Structure prediction request, 322 residues.
Amino acid sequence: MSAQGIQPWPYSIINTVDDVQFPVATVKFVRRAIGGRGVDLSMPEGLLAGCNCSSDAQCSDCDHHEKDQERDGNGDASSTATPSSQASQTALDDDDGDDAGSHCTCTHRYGAVCDPTGRLLQPEWSRRPLLECGPNCACPMSCGNRYVQRNCHGARSLAIYRRAPLGWAVRTLVAIKAFSFVCEYAGLIVRERDARKIDRERGDNMNFLLILKERRSDSSALKTHVDASTCGNVSRFFNHSCAPNLDLRAVRTGSIVPRLAFFAQRDIVAGEDLAFSYGDCAPPADGDTTPRLKCNCGAENCGGFLPFDANAFPDEGSTQVQ
Ligand SMILES: [Zn+2]
Ligand SMILES: [Zn+2]
Ligand SMILES: [Zn+2]
Prediction:
């Protein structure tokens, strides 16, 4: 298939298996997630006011990592199952005021998110809040702590291709190093009530609603809903795998609403499909007759069915969560 007429999608689009056209007419390309009706993307006053750094380098200073890790005890935040991650209101109360000195107030406590090549710094701290500089910061867009927001739609070296029997899939044309940022899950950020409606009304159509749950310290969950049915970027075509090579993390870039960021879980070789886990892959329990979609991921540990989250909308029956 020629790439003509699909200019807004800045990736290679390949179809050598059938006549299905890439849905350029019905799905709008957006670089990043955008706020839907009633979604407040501002940061509550008093939380993460922003730094006064004047140079790019100042924000990249993460000397405080080691020290804070010691001070906080073992430094290991409890790890949770994909796709949830831990970030609490308390944890976001960023600065404890000790010796911020000339250091960047954004990176003072948790360090910069990525190194200059886009790899997660200290990935073993894997469930720490990830905070980039935002609109309230004095630093320029080239700041070392703005990698995710600068590269949110992913690289041109990602190809969307037609793959039977999965439909569209995504593969990388170049090798990706472990823990590298790949792209954000782009789409419309919707309120929970709108997410329920979207889910109810989609019928048998594919599900492009991604729900990320972050556990808070009081065991409640902060949920972010991004719907890519009518707009998105390359991530809209990532399939599920029971042995995924992508991990989903919440990264905040100046809003309490996080960006849903994909990072490589391991080294990925050129030509490999990119996939993440849509949720718990366990096969249905005995006696569970909920209809489930078949999983075609081909992984050795494949449970045979796509994940199904009965608790996505707890008081409204169940839904398949992508
Ligand atoms: Zn700074
Ligand atoms: Zn900065
Ligand atoms: Zn900053």
